[in-house]
Amino acid sequence: MKECMAVVLAAGEGTRMKSKMPKVLHEAAGRSMLEWVVNAVRGVDIKKCTVVCGRGMDEIKARLGGAAAYVEQEERRGSGHAVMCAARELENFDGYTLIIAGDMPLLRAETVRALVDAAQKGNYACTMLTAQLENPHGYGRILRNELGDVTAIVEEKDATQEQREITEVNASCYCVGTPFLLECLKEIKPANAQGEYYLTDIVGLLNAKGEKVGAYIAEDARECMGVNDRAQLAQISEILRERILARHMRNGITLIDPKNTYIDADCEIGQDTVIYPNVTLEGNTRIGEDVILYPGSRIRDSVVGNGTQVQNSVVLEAEIGEHSTVGPNAYVRPGSHIGSHCRIGDFVEIKNSTIGDGTKVSHLTYIGDSDFGKGINVGCGVVVVNYDGKNKFRTSVGDDAFIGCNTNLISPVSVGEGVYIAAGSTITEDIPNNAFAIARSRQTIKTDWKDKRK
């Protein structure tokens, strides 16, 4: 089997997207369109992937990093010209070159592999990806000879009535022998009203040289869909979500209402987890086994351990251990590590803090920039005062401490193990192990005060 290289065309202006962002960086189901395409291409084990960029080249590089090489198409002069910009990356390469549009996120690695296999097994100079459409209006039609080889691509405006009845259309994805490709690129002419170099011209050029051109028909025509506006982006996002959800359900996940569940492509979920409607899992989130995610929860780039329950809460860039409960209406912010068998209750906010195993933070509490040990009871309304207006400081609380309701811990402060703090206290000094602390004014009762006030 010959080696493959890939050229991904990502220089289109995408004017119909009406966006400052490069079109191919718009996201669908947790990945940019370009990332979907590059991942599909890398499923073929290619030697090198080159992305042809237009405006926003720096943004594209920042997103893909070292996953590809980059060239710039300074002038947009057609698909053929875009490949010409990448020609230097293909010099002295004797294998096949895949050419794929960067706005086809539905394209699967299995389909790309089948296209490459068809080219190599059929010994074709070029093999195109095509689709069978019930309504092929607006697409270039594929003309084949009696052997099934492709002889031409006819644009609809140039097609005869008989040719317009053909339902096989060009999907703008090619696998071409690299020496043939480089030769044809030198011969393509901008002989059209737009003055552009069309990549489709290589089909006619190869036929004129007596070379065979084949076509592989995609099993699912939707894979060939491109994105030109936000409505099409929404349509494709829905299809990708359907694929993702179907995969998880086949792997033993219960989705109560799949149509109202949103899971990004790179999320991992363990068996026997149950996910209720209106749950959103984003980024590289990892959910364990036997987890229950109740309605209204959003979890991004976080880890949730086995048997944990999250109810109507937000968890961002955090870790939660096993058999813990979070919510309702809790907010676990970046940098937080919640242990196992913990309780993070309603209207609790945890920020950049560690909460040890078995610690209960039941309600109406803020813990920021802190390290809480194991088995601690945190009463209602406790606040870690971590910011003095200029700087943030950390507070620590030892194992088995009891912090009464409406306590303020003024950072930086250290609370020892087994400490009891009376409700309503404002703690400004360190407390040693097993001590009792009370820091509030003594209650005063003035009898008959109301009558005297008159």
Automatic annotation (TrEMBL):
Reaction(s) this enzyme catalyzes, per UniProt: N-acetyl-alpha-D-glucosamine 1-phosphate + UTP + H(+) = UDP-N-acetyl-alpha-D-glucosamine + diphosphate; alpha-D-glucosamine 1-phosphate + acetyl-CoA = N-acetyl-alpha-D-glucosamine 1-phosphate + CoA + H(+)
Chain ranges of the MobA-like NTP transferase domain: 6-150
GO BP term, example: cell morphogenesis
GO MF term (any one): UDP-N-acetylglucosamine diphosphorylase activity
Catalytic machinery residues: 363
Renumbered residue ranges of the record's region Linker: 231-251
Compartmental location: Cytoplasm
Record key words, sorted: Acyltransferase, Cell shape, Cell wall biogenesis/degradation, Cytoplasm, Magnesium, Metal-binding, Multifunctional enzyme, Nucleotidyltransferase, Peptidoglycan synthesis, Repeat, Transferase
Binding site residues for acetyl-CoA: 386-387, 423, 440
Cell wall biogenesis/degradation is among the record's keywords: yes
Main localisation: cytoplasm
EC number: 2.7.7.23, 2.3.1.157
Residue numbers binding Mg(2+): 103, 228
Stated role: Catalyzes the last two sequential reactions in the de novo biosynthetic pathway for UDP-N-acetylglucosamine (UDP-GlcNAc). The C-terminal domain catalyzes the transfer of acetyl group from acetyl coenzyme A to glucosamine-1-phosphate (GlcN-1-P) to produce N-acetylglucosamine-1-phosphate (GlcNAc-1-P), which is converted into UDP-GlcNAc by the transfer of uridine 5-monophosphate (from uridine 5-triphosphate), a reaction catalyzed by the N-terminal domain.
Protein name: Bifunctional protein GlmU
Organism of this sequence: Christensenella minuta
Gene: glmU
